């Protein structure tokens, strides 16, 4: 009688410790990146943007992902198999890739504040949408800043997340800690090179900066995986609020001519330290529900917010709201986007993932796997 892989892995996950503080920090990072996206429309000069380094939240995501993937799969991927690993990751990640693409397409076609969909043929729009759904980079829409994924700009990081998962399944889970350390050090050099050449680590989202994304995912994912395998978990009593403040400080570091030094420092040392502290921190009961909610809402918020951001950008360009009005719009926008992300999660993402998981389990049982 063959083992039920799905049931076994689910049981393993239920018995593992859950890092609630890290979940909470993931939500803080998601809010930071959404706020940054609002602010970068209003302040094209990043030195005037109070959260000018909010984009580094993506590097925090990458580092956290490496830690979590190692924790969740290192001891079971050999038993479950590479194919099952990929299916698990697709079920977890891809429904929101599709949702973000659909919302982005609707925003492109029906933006009440501007946009020029009439400049593009139906065939081109359909092709860009299909590529967005399938996570195939196609930076061809000028009105979308030649993003890798014109209908959902943040999907560029998901593309690299998928690449990291592929490399993990075929290479990283098989290698020892010494080789992992070597790869991490080499990718740290790549981060430093990218930062020195470009003056910052903002790239990865567009055609011209495509390979910058490779350097960003390589170091941070490897660093997170190395933290887990080395058991670099620092016991502390900073708690969720203390670590949330420390994380937020990274995003409000002033944007300056020294970015090529400050940003690598944050990515190479500060974020891995926060992951190690977050994994070892004691969570007070009063923040448990907040951290769980924060962790659950982070990915839906990240993958669905940018459709609204394009409309906000066109509104800002055409109406030029004053500072007070702008502040009210951004605060209201953040609240509404969190609410919308929650609805997407509850009405669409969770049911779709449950359906796909049940179908997968039924197929495995029918096949005797």
Question: What would your notes on this structure say?
Answer:
The structure is a single chain. This protein has one domain (18-115, 159-367). It contains 14 helices and no strands. It has helices spanning 5-15, 20-42, 57-73, 77-80, 82-110, 122-133, 155-170, 177-198, 210-230, 239-251, 259-280, 288-304, 306-319, 323-367. The chain starts with a helix and ends with a helix. Residues 1-14 have low confidence and may be disordered.
Topology:
Blueprint: H1 5-15, H2 20-42, H3 57-73, H4 77-80, H5 82-110, H6 122-133, H7 155-170, H8 177-198, H9 210-230, H10 239-251, H11 259-280, H12 288-304, H13 306-319, H14 323-367
Helix pairs in contact: 2-3, 2-10, 2-12, 2-13, 3-9, 3-11, 5-6, 5-7, 5-12, 5-13, 5-14, 7-9, 8-9, 8-11, 9-11, 10-11, 12-14
List keywords for this structure.
369 residues, mainly alpha, 14 helices, disordered N terminus
Mean pLDDT: 93
* Cα end-to-end separation: 9 Å
Helix content, binned percent = over 70%
Number of strands: 0
Largest sheet: none
Number of helices: 14
Elements, N to C (H/E) = HHHHHHHHHHHHHH
Beta-strand fraction estimate: under 5%
Number of domains: 1
What structural category do the secondary elements indicate?
mainly alpha
Shape: globular
Radius of gyration: 21 Å
Uncertain stretches of 5 or more adjacent residues? 1-14
Briefly, what is this?
The chain has helices at 5-15, 20-42, 57-73, 77-80, 82-110, 122-133, 155-170, 177-198, 210-230, 239-251, 259-280, 288-304, 306-319, 323-367. With 369 residues, the protein is mostly helical.
